[in-house]
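Is this the right way to post structure tokens for a design question? Let me know if I should format differently. Anyway, here goes:
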């Protein structure tokens, strides 16, 4: 899923350009002691941050990130850094400036959370006249099937089998509401960020990247074809 890896980096931090300016130690300590609703969670992340900096010889006072303690281009919180970080050179994993480690680590994250290579992420849903389906705008569960939706007048534009589990999603656009079906890989994106809009944005950017790459590859192939010499030695004849 290379295009999805690139898309996640784009949506998260604009490819490392916006990673946060808060000192992570201060952010996590503040949330631990001054945010009772989630003090336990952030207290655990604070402990994991100290483990992380000790294990990899990092200065805990110099690391900066988001107001919630997310770090680097991937915006991993400390526990995710410890769980998913991958080193590509045998040294300590560096998810701040080593792009080989960064790409490998997000790939590891997706794999560990059940990403299915080549599997669908989102598909359009075509609504037929007289459709009888209902949608819960707050539900992200894969509690429908392609066949079940078809029986209710909602046709998922996918070649996946009828028994494939999907989530029926409502998205608002300027032209009005549209429906999409989210597959297992969409669920995996939601583990990275639980916002439906986030996961849709990652998918849409990934598709745009794929189209751009295909167009550029096609242009290069066409250019090579045009420039190949003919038997007479004159290009293009």
């Amino acid at each position: 899923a290379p295009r999805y890896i690139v898309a996640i980096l784009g949506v998260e931090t604009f490819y490392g350009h916006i990673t946060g300016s808060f000192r992570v130690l201060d952010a996590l300590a503040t949330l631990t002691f001054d945010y009772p609703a989630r003090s336990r969670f952030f207290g655990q992340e604070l402990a994991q941050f100290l483990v992380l900096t000790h294990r990899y010889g990092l200065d805990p006072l110099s690391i900066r990130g988001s107001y919630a303690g997310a770090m680097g281009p991937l915006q991993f919180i400390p526990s995710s850094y410890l769980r998913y970080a991958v080193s590509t050179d045998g040294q300590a994993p560096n998810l701040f400036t080593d792009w080989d480690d960064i790409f490998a680590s997000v790939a590891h994250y997706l794999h560990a959370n059940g990403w299915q290579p080549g599997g669908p992420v989102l598909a359009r849903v075509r609504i037929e006249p007289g459709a009888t389906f209902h949608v819960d705008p707050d539900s992200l569960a894969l509690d429908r099937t392609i066949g079940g939706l078809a029986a209710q007048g909602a046709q998922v534009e996918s070649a996946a089998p009828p028994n494939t589990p999907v989530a029926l999603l409502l998205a608002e656009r300027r032209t009005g509401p549209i429906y999409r079906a989210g597959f297992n890989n969409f669920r995996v994106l939601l583990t990275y960020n639980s916002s439906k809009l986030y996961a849709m944005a990652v998918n849409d950017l990934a598709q745009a990247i794929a189209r751009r790459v295909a167009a550029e590859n096609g242009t290069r192939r066409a250019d090579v074809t045009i420039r190949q010499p003919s038997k007479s030695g004159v290009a293009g004849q």
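Format looks fine. Someone answered above. Worth noting: The longest helix spans residues 196-227. The radius of gyration is 23 Å.
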